[in-house]
Amino acid sequence: MLKGKTVVLGVSGGIACYKAAALASALRKQHADVQVIMTENATQFVTPLTFEQITGNRALVDTFDRNFPHSVEHVAVADRADFVLIAPATANVLAKLSHGIADDMLTTTVLACDCPKAAAPAMNTKMYLNPVTQDNLAALRRYGWEIVEPASGRLACGAVGPGRLPEPEELLEVCLHALAHGKDMAGLKVLVTAGPTREALDPVRYLTNRSSGKMGYAVARAASRRGAEVTLISGPVDLPRPAYLDVVDVTTAQGMYDAVMARAESADIIIKAAAVADYRPAQVAENKIKKSDGELSIPLERTKDILGVLGARKRPGQFLCGFSMETEHLIENSRAKLERKHLDLIAANNTKAAGAGFGVDTNILTLIAPDGERELPLMSKQEAADALLDEILLRRKSNE
User: How many domains does the chain have?
Assistant: First the structure.
């Protein structure tokens, strides 16, 4: 996802340097060109050779190293940079960057960079909360820097509180959010639903389905990376909470209905990827239902048809996309749903197809619109999410 992009990874001196090595590896797996610049203090924790073996590039430390080709090296690196991330960012480096002090290879290079920049502070809790540090962070935000909030917990120094460097996968998302896609959805408000719902039988049991939420989360993440303002309404899932978007947690079909209806009017695009229960128990037992020797019958009642209500209320210019998961007659059943619920597009897939359906990281979508359909090949759910958004943007443009 980062092929052709150059990420300058600045590493300043702190015990969290080991996470920077893992981050460099993750960036290389995304095919980024990673240029590591270290402070002298950082080399006391991790050697430059470690980063050189991971990235295939020489790790820069000394501003006056004479072993480079003839060029002003810090300016040459700055010119190549598409994104700068300082991780870990110590209090000392943050103070320098916020005041334009350039006295080593890292700070001179970053001062010459005009690309987007982010810093991930990592330090003792009292150092982080010190008003001077907070003033420096505020200054960097004013200058356009993104500040990645530190995690809280037990630190290497023994203190407990904010100051931990986020995990490498969280830092990777910072880079992906900045670089993985052009911002062709900037200015759009997107509402996405994802995951299952749970309908209680009694205090300890519920009815649900096999939805993992992975497809809906991938769509929300992709829209956010493309610049949209995204609200994700999520049923109960076992997935990391995505960054850069507003997540609304719900449990039941009624909770999903209420959350969607409260936000639908302002959305430019609504993508209903959640697997909402069609039925719920007509009555919820106050106490646990006890086992008996006879058969048990559970009367069910219909839940509210969220997609149907959205289709009936769709305002001019609003784009409504549903999902259809079928086990037979995929096209016929999905097209009937498209027409019945007044959708602009429906993404259909067959749970019996290898590589598609619940719980897996891949999918095979057929995109069905009133005027035709297009079957996508097997791809990762993240790739499928971008393909779906491409189709939505194309159709929105043609309807203008």
Answer: 2
